[in-house]
Amino acid sequence: MIQLLVFLPLLTALVAGLGGRVIGNVPAKIVTTAGLFASAGLAWVIFARFWLSGAQGFDVPVLDWIQSGDLSVHWAFKVDTLTAVMLVVVTTVSALVHLYSWGYMAEDPSQPRFFAYLSLFTFAMLMLVTADNLVQMFFGWEGVGLASYLLIGFWYHKPSANAAAIKAFVVNRVGDFGFSLGIFATFMVFGTVSIDAILAAVPGQAGATFSFLGHSVDVMTTLCLLLFVGAMGKSAQLGLHTWLPDAMEGPTPVSALIHAATMVTAGVFMVCRLSPMFEASVTAQAVVTYVGAATALFAASVALVQTDIKRVIAYSTCSQLGYMFFAAGSGAYGAAMFHLFTHAFFKALLFLGAGSVIHAMHHEQDMRFYGGLRKHIPITFALMTIGTLALTGFFFTAGYYSKDAILEAAFASGMTHGQFAFLVGAFVALLTSFYSWRLVFLTFYGSPRWAGSEHIQHALHDAHDGHHAPATGTGGYHPHESPVSMLIPLFILGAGALGAGWLWHTHFVGPEGGEFWRGSLAFRKDLMLAMEHVPIWVVWTPSVAFFAGLLGAWYAYLRAPHLPARAAGAVPALYAFLTHKWYFDELYDAIFVRPAFAIGRFLWVRGDQQVIDRFGPDGVAAAVAGGARAAKRFQTGYVYSYALVMLVGLAVAAAWFLPAAFGLAGK
Amino acid sequence: MPMLSIMILLPVLAALLLVMLPGVDARRARLVALVTTLVEFVLALMLWQRFENAGAAFQFVEKLPLFAPYLDWHLGIDGIALMLILLSVFLMPLCILASWESVQKRVPEYMAAFLVMESLMIGTFAARDIFLFYLFFEAGLIPMFLIIGIWGGARRIYASYKFFLYTLLGSVLMLVGMIYMVGVAGSTDIGVLSLYDFDPHAQFWLFLAFFASFAVKMPMWPVHTWLPDAHVEAPTAGSVILAGVLLKLGGYGFVRFSLPMFTDASAQLIWLVFGLSMVAVVYTSLVALVQNDMKKLIAYSSVAHMAFVTAGLFALNTQGIEGSLVMMLSHGLVSGALFLCVGVVYDRLHTREIARYGGLADTMPRYALLLLFFTMASVGLPATSGFVAEFLVLIGLYQTSSWATLIMTTGIILGAAYMLWLYRRVAFGAAAGDDTRAMPDLSLREVAILLPITAAVLWMGIYPASFQAPMKPAVASIVERLKGRELATLPTDMTTLRPAVTAEMAAQ
Questions:
Q1: Which ipTM was obtained for this model?
Q2: How many CB atoms lie within 10 A of CB A194?
Q3: Residue B75's beta-bridge partner residues?
Q4: How many CB atoms within 10 Å of residue A559?
Q5: φ, ψ for residue A296 (rounded to 5)?
Q6: Most exposed: A135, A504, A582, B359, by fewest CB within 10 Å?
Q7: What is the C-alpha separation between A88 and A507, in angstroms, rounded?
Q8: Measured between CB atoms, does A187 come within 8 Å of chain B?
Q9: Which residues of chain A have a CB within 8 Å of the CB of B289?
């Protein structure tokens, strides 16, 4: 069953990708979408077994892969509760995104390619979450990276999309650099890359040290941090986050699937999968927590000033991933996975909702040209509101349960980094509420500001040529609600965003969660019990943050709409700092990208041409025969004779030396 | 049946026929070459099929005294030689096909040069006599020299003389070393020499003499500058053989001579190899990033990949050496395919300048897909042969020097950068001109050239055991021979951890 579930998307990807031109658009779309729905059905069956009937985890070997000396790597599937949760998330969102893309991509000329990439991505992601060893996980890891590269650059005519695709791949490779070294070091320490064997041997290595530059360094800390660099790359944590906002160049369904619900959560999944390793190193946990908290704060602060609807949601994703990491760093792996699970629903909903808005607004993504859309696309409006409620943690929505669990766990962890994360997390909850409602108010409320948009003007000009619209108002444009294929996924995800938290919170984060997880991650029952005894103000903090953010956004964008501009003008330095995303791109460009090209050019011209060649072959030629004469003789076609001279010369040399050599042996 | 002799002599005979017989036109020459190389491939498959994977003994051994005691016609293969022979004869028919239309000048001679080269390459890998090896090893350069010099591009003379100068210097030193060794050990049999314990002091100088030759062939930094020029000027098929097989001679030399014969020197001089390899990866990757010529870019990437081979070999452990051997095979396939891909567009537009292309994903979708595949294989994406190779090399190297691994692993970042930057400029964006837009997609012949390589790359990436199995006993015997040599490792390396852990694990 698991084999079918995983390989079906690969099969359909190959059919649609290689045969798309032969079988045509619609069959390609049917094959991939049907394949994904079948996989999703199987995933839910597997999940139900772990959720309801207490099935035990199992391993399914497929094929030998790399054998060398003590190293033994297999293709194999490992299925347990943690995997089952991921299977459900990945296949469900993927199936819905496939369906959604029928409508969203309807006018695109290369639809089979798009659907093939989506299915290929899903296959790689499934390989990642079912990996029973680190190398297969790395296979999935790089596979999703490839699919992400292809999908970000799907519209390869756009230079910005190409740049974003390369950036995503290369920045992820920086993370993979750490992940690779982590695998090498893990193999050296444990003598295996099998996850089960490693985790079983972790207690024996806790506290072991090695000497590095005269300092004693903890082994487990080193391993965890190296692996965590990989997680930071894939999950866009501070420092390696720069690719994620740019990845919004890809079609919006891609953003929902890859850059919100699934691929970017791979880092969180990895930390949870290897949670016993991280439990063996307090330092590594602290680093994970601080990085997570810093990312949550950074991304939320940047989201406040973004005007592109997709970028707001992208930074929001980055920020929510930060939450997941500091939950994991605080020891609440169940809470991290729970937030991953609920986030998949409401963030995919928000992205697909944003796609619906973009669809209605003729590809305009700038919220400054939205406004008043709630009457024109009421269904999208309603579902986006549900998504926003869940993201900002309104009572009894999915985000309410998972975000509360994270903040309470961080507080209850009793460690300094946990307390710090709680404070940051509470503040970020306020920011989240503010920027999320800002998005809703700017898009759906107020009066239309559509006329200023070039995209809208294009649409109007297409319709009736030569007519010049006024700079404000609707400009005579009429947005339409999206087709049914795009709305069904929104409804399903909306249901998840409302109900997933309520339905599953006792399993994921309750004190009895250990029976749900069944050893698939390091479940700290003491922490879960301590969460039930946190002070009442801690319990209420997220809700207060929700209302404060909502109120603030309402005041700033509906009540007093001139306030934001005035606020930006009052602190121009801070505003510029935020709009430039803390200057990360500029910094990296200055210290990595431009120097790499400059050094490359320097080494090529100075190194290869002016040093090595000059004193090497060119110099030798000049010295031996006099450069000009040698070149002239070569040019008159003496190549043959030179070859012959070489051969004869060598033969003579051999004949001369050989007897002497044997004479030497005789002595 | 003397399989190896037949495989060596058959192409030479065919070449003689082509050159000697009157009335051989271009069409017949192509056909004869194709049939001959296909027969060679089938013969090699038979070798593979009959090869016993168990045991390190040499198989298909033939011995015929020629000029005893100086030179015997002594042949035999182990798994390493078998795999490299397979690689050579697999690429050969593809090269003939690739030259089918693009070479119109002196076709019979051209085909003869390739056939002679095939003989010499098989001879190099199959030779069990050190001087026989030397003859094949050096003579193999002559056809390549001619191919570049006669059928090459505008600066072919400069390129071929550079190629010649570099390799000559190394060869002479190696020959002196060989003569000394034969003198001391009293045998020209490579098997005997491999088991002879040379004086450690002499080993040091012998190692350097051989190193001079192999480092040029690899090529290692800083003796790599002949390669970009040679590639740029060589015709497509010449580049394929140069990258696919000739670059493997250096690595083969290291594994056949340096490691088993100069064990102490190898263990003591790993820092030299690691140092040059580390520089090569970073240096040539950065240089590759700024290239405007497709072939130069791929040539520089070859130098970076070959640095993985040297570093892995001198990790002196099973994973490192096996990884290096897989890397040699993988690079032979992948870079060969990349040069073929360049050849495809060169045949259409007659320029290698990257800026003249663009938007091929629109106009040549089949081409763009295959180029993407080989790009990904080059950057070592898992499930391609490149990953298995890189992974084994690095995991082996990590156990010998984590410092060197740290630097070498940056290659996966830089490699992605220059290859994707190349792919973006060639396949994405808009076409540079109307002539670029008018290029037709892959023909059936071109698909037939590239698809077998695709299949081999995937096979080696997903189930490398088929290729590793014959090589394992040979590698094991080398590792066994190296065991107990004192390694020169850097202090404060994480690898100092190793003994403590294994002891602890044993106690558990």
A1: 0.91
A2: 21
A3: B62, B127
A4: 11
A5: -55, -45
A6: A582
A7: 15
A8: yes
A9: 596-597, 600
